[in-house]
Amino acid sequence: MPSLITTSALQGLVPVRHGALALTDATPARITSVAPFKGREADVAQALKPLGLRFAAPNQVVEAAAGRCVWTGPGQAFLIDADPAPLTGLAALTDQSDGWVGLRLSGPGAEDALARLIPIDLRPQVFGAGSAARAPVGHMLSVVMRAPEGIEMLLFRSMARAAVHEIGVAMAALAARQQA
Amino acid sequence: MRITCPHCGARDRREFYYLGAEDYLHRPAEDAAPAAWDAYLHLRDNPAGATRDLWYHEQGCGAWLLVTRNTVTHEILGVRAVDGEATE
C-alpha cells in the first residue's frame, strides 16, 4: 500500500487563543488500551518497569521518558506513546491511536475555563501532578490528565470539531469576564 | 442527586445511565420454570422507599454500579461496583 499523508483531526482547528489561554494539539503518537488478563497484573507491572512506568492506579497518570500510562477504567489503562510489545500475552492490547485526539489547555486560569465544561475539581491542590480522571467535557466523554504544561484531554477523534468549539467558547467567555 | 462511584468519587447523576432493578443480576437457570422467567423479565416491585437498581457510569469509568436509593427522598443510601467493593 502506498504511504498516505497523515493529517490530524485537529488540522485547521487549533491553536485557539483567548486571553492568556491557549488550546493546542496534544494528540499522542500512539495509544494502546491495556487490560491485564486475570491473574497477570503482577506480570504487567513487571513488564512496564523497564519503561519506567507502572500500571496506573484509579485516577492516576504515570509519566516517564518512554511515554505515559493513564487509568481509563476498572482493569484498564491507556499506554501512551510507548511501545506495547513487552505486554504481549499478558494483557488484552488494542490499538486506539486513530480513535482519539488530544487537546491541551495551558495558561493561567485553564482550570477556570474547564470548570464550565468538566464537572470535577481541577484546581492544582486537588488535581495536581499525576492526577487523571474519566469525566465528561460538555457532553463528550473524555480522559482528563494533569500535564506539566496544563491540562490535557483525550477525546473521540470524531468529536474533534465539537470539542474545540465548546472549549473555545468557554475560553472566550472567561477572557471576556477578565477584561470586564 | 449525586452518586458516589467507587472509582471516580461523587459525580452528578447525569453522568450515569439507568438500567433498572437489581433483578437483572439474578438471571434464572436455563431450565428454570416459565414462572421464574416471567418474574425475571416482567415482574417488578414499585416501592415507595428504599430500592436497589443498576446504573452504568457511561460518562466516566464505565463501571456497572448497584445503587441503593430512596424513591421518596432521592437519598442515595449506598453504592457498590457490581464486581467489586462498596463505597459509602
UniProtKB/TrEMBL annotation, chain A:
The lineage of its organism: Bacteria, Pseudomonadati, Pseudomonadota, Alphaproteobacteria, Rhodobacterales. This is Sarcosine oxidase subunit gamma. SUPFAM superfamilies: Folate-binding domain. It comes from the Bacteria.
TrEMBL record, chain B:
One of its GO terms (molecular function) is sarcosine oxidase activity. One of its GO terms (biological process) is tetrahydrofolate metabolic process. It comes from the Bacteria. Pfam families: SoxD. This is Sarcosine oxidase subunit delta. InterPro entries: SoxD, SoxD_sf. It comes from Allgaiera indica.
